[in-house]
Specification:
The radius of gyration is 19 Å and the shape is globular. It is built from 3 helices and 9 strands, in the order E-E-E-E-H-E-E-H-E-H-E-E. It folds into 2 domains: 65 residues, no CATH class; 62 residues, no CATH class. Strands 1, 2, 3, 4, 5 and 6 form a 6-stranded mixed β-sheet that branches. The chain has 160 residues and is an alpha+beta fold. Helix content is 14%, strand content 28%.
Length: 160
């Protein structure tokens, strides 16, 4: 599977998979900042390696092979209590960020309290990484804006 990405001077992208254009999810054009999201989505949808060819507006070309992360086999037994949590996919939105700033999207795996001196120590196990709490945190790398949302909430989550 070949993913072709063409970047124009305005910073918009044309994305094609095996020659077929991939339209953006909204009426707006794909932007350079969307590239990681686009590639992550294509890898998770197809669950197979992708050959990515990027053609920059200056004529330079970059090629790479991206492979999906290995995932443990998930039982399709509907009676599994954590089935819904493992298969949840959704959109979390937040506001208050600086236009164009890098925003970290973090899935919370544990919530704990600070000790009497204000410090926190969290002991993590493999179980924490496979059973997220359902909370997603957006962190602005420049603005310091922090927005948290709980799975199942709709709209912008209130900044905390």
């Amino acid at each position: 599977m070949v993913v072709s990405v063409i970047d124009d001077e305005a910073g918009t992208l044309d994305v094609a998979v095996d020659g077929r254009l991939v339209p953006p999810p909204s009426q707006q054009a794909w932007r350079r900042d969307d590239l990681a999201t686009i590639l992550d989505g294509l890898i998770s949808e197809r669950n197979q390696p992708l050959r990515v060819e990027i053609r920059e507006s200056d004529g330079s070309t970059f090629t790479d092979i991206l492979t999906p992360a290995r995932r443990p086999a998930i039982s399709r037994d509907a009676s599994s209590p954590n089935q819904e949590a493992r298969e949840f996919r959704g959109v979390v939105t937040g506001s208050g960020f600086i236009p164009g700033e890098q925003v970290t999207v973090a899935v919370a795996v544990l919530t704990t309290s600070a000790g009497p001196t204000g410090t926190v120590r969290a002991w993590l196990s493999l179980a924490h990484t496979t059973q997220p709490t359902g909370e997603v945190v957006l962190i602005g790398r420049i603005s310091g804006t922090v927005t948290a949302a709980i799975r199942g909430e709709t709209g912008d989550a209130a900044a905390r």
